[in-house]
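Extended Data, record Enoyl-CoA hydratase family protein
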Amino acid sequence: MKHYIGASNPMREQFNPQASYVAEHFAWNFADGVGTVTLNRPDRKNPLTFQSYAELRDFFYALRFATDVKAIVVTGAGGNFCSGGDVHEIIGPLTTMTMPELLEFTRMTGDLIKAMRACPQPVLGAIDGICAGAGAMMALACDMRYGTEATKTAFLFTRVGLAGADMGACALLPRMIGQGRASELLFSGRAMTAHEGLAWGFFNDLYESADLLVNVQATARALASGPTFAHGMTKTMLGQEWSMTIEQAIEAEAQAQAICMQTEDFRRAYEAFAAKQKPVFQGD
């Protein structure tokens, strides 16, 4: 979860702001507590490279220590989200690598998903057009996903002779849309339509392409203005409770809620309610 560290706290220096981050392999914009990551190779439908995988992994990991960033939007440029690993810059070189080198690569790609899930900020996907392979896994790693009529999401690993088990797909996708539907998509590699994704719970909502990013950023701003410590706790518990029994989950949530009840935001919410005002949360 995201912990609030005040300016006078001696540990404050380890929490580095990311608002001014200068990205090399993707675009980064920050406003109103919301950071937007844009995969920006539109001429190729925004494929990933060895370098962009690594930078995205490191960036999402660094967000664990960024108290200025309250929510994240991930999107793609040029009407598409991400076409997966670049065929020429990744797929080709992989065919010449040794097993230890291949394992380094597959662990790196998985580390990106782990970093997205481990950062305390809510991560929202604004997903238009092509969303395939590793791009589909980045979408799946988001906490919420929003698409358009044109969005086509394909876990197409079997189309290139690989298992559907990639970057956590066999764990994450069944939990999102159910075992049978996930099995069909992972075995076939076919594209899931936007309306299938909405009906199956993969997408939270669909928008017109022209309205997608602005609507998702508005949702992110609403989250950023909320009790961000509590949001971080919610994300933590959503991840941890997968492996708990119901009894363990109920006890874990009792402890989590007791912690949140000690925050100033909890007090602010009560005082605002008593005064018939809207609370102004500060994340502490």
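Summary. The radius of gyration is 19 Å.
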